[in-house]
Please model this.
Amino acid sequence: MAENEAEINHVTGKTLLEWEAHEYFHHEKGNDWYWWTGLVAVVLLGLAIYQGSFLFGVLVLVGWFTIVLYAVRPPRNLKFSLTERGVLVESTLYPWQSLKSFWIFYNPPLHKDLSLESKKAFVQFVKIPLGKMEPAKVREIVIKFLPEVEQEESLIDNLSHLAKF
Model:
């Protein structure tokens, strides 16, 4: 274990700040939530049958199953670190050079997230939950490496908050 930790420190450099947090904010879902989710899936499945689209029907069923599966699964507790070379999420390093900017979304108790804008086309934003970490401490370190640029929450983020997912 210590050998693996030494290897990670060699790659990431000195750890400046670290914390643990749930991978996402878990909303408690009552029976109503599951009924509404099922109703939406049935309506979309009916639309797929009406249009004669087998592929759309399969997509609706797989999507509904995945949403319900993630809804009942409790979030994992992950380890996050700000290091000299980048942001470390568990064992994945996001180097400072591969990031454009950052913003901290602060809306307790729902979410406190560090949002990193990536230079990569496929992974445009990386959201990191702050958990119980003080956002000012995170900002104090990250601003040394990246510019702070205000970001808007995406439509998907807003819809997931609205749906309590």
Observations:
- The longest helix spans residues 31-51.
- The CA atoms of residues 41 and 61 lie 7 Å apart.
